[in-house]
Amino acid sequence: MSGALLVISGPSGAGKSSIIRELLKQIPNSVFSISTTTREKRENEIDGVNYHFTDKKSFKKEIKNGAFLEWANVHGNFYGTSLKQIIKFVDEGKLVILDIDVQGYMILKKRLKCRITSIFLTTKNIDDLKTRLLLRQSDSEADIEKRLKNAIAEMAYMKRYKYLVINDDFKTALAQTLNIARAAFNKRSLVKTDKFIQEWIKSAK
Ligand code: 5GP
């Protein structure tokens, strides 16, 4: 196992998807962890690209089968990360980028802490977030209200993340995220230190 995980969380509408789209283009060997969700597909989304869309019954069956590394109920819908997919990518030595909520991150942290680099991405204030959610025109008014309410609760988890990126100016936020992502493979905890040192000494001629 030699891959690394880059977790990006933050309020819905903060710009995670746009940042991730650029990271995938600019970071060699990076892949996106496609989550499974019971949420309705948005007009601009493609099944199998943005998410694997499914219904609640199938999702619950997958939970029973142990298919998810983590899953959570976010804004009233289920979202989950495929265990099989993550194992495959990590085995292949990829940088796996995950767009998951704070609950999912807390679970993942317990299971794979040594492989995770975490970023909390947010807007500079809640008013900005509301403007963005309204501008993207993909959610109903009730849904936007729900997302704004959840955003306040999500902000409390900010301190659990290693890095904070404020998405005020997109270019700046992207540059900062790229810097963090590029360091993910250099996380010392990716390496079994004792084994590394033993082999390092053994190489003496
Ligand atoms: P959206 O419906 O806007 O695509 O996503 C809503 C929230 O669900 C976002 O905060 C996103 O990070 C989170 N999310 C997406 N996929 C997963 C997942 O697999 N697990 C968890 N825990 N959260 C997810």
Describe the model.
By secondary structure, this protein is an alpha/beta fold. It has a single domain (4-190), classed as 3-Layer(aba) Sandwich (Rossmann fold). It is built from eight helices and nine strands. It has helices spanning 16-26, 56-64, 83-91, 102-112, 126-135, 141-155, 170-183, 193-202; strands spanning 4-9, 30-32, 35-37, 51-53, 68-74, 77-82, 95-99, 116-122, 163-166. It has a five-stranded parallel beta sheet with strand order 2-7-1-8-9, sandwiched between helices. A hairpin with a 2-residue loop joins β5 and β6 (77-82). It is globular, with a radius of gyration of 18 Å. Bound molecules: guanosine-5'-monophosphate. Residues 9, 12, 35, 39, 70, 72, 74, 79-81, 99-101, 103-104 line the site of guanosine-5'-monophosphate.
Key features of this structure:
205 residues; alpha/beta; four-stranded mixed sheet; 43% helix; globular; binds guanosine-5'-monophosphate
